[in-house]
Amino acid sequence: MSSGTAMRQADFAAALLDPALACPRGLQSCNGSDPTPRFAVHRNNVVGSLVEALADTFPVVQELVGVEFFRAMAAVFVRHSPPRSSILAHYGQEFPQFIAGFEPADPVPYLADMAALELARVRAYHAADAAALAPQSLSLALSDASRIGELRLVCHPSVSIVSSRHAVVSLWVAHQSPDEMAAIDIDQAEQAIVLRAGLDVLVLRLPPGGAEFAQGLIRGESLADAAGGAAMAVRSFDLSAVLALLMGRGALTSIHLPGGGQT
Question: 30, 88, 117, 179: which could form a disulfide with 53 (CB 3.0–4.6 Å)?
Answer without folding.
Answer: 88
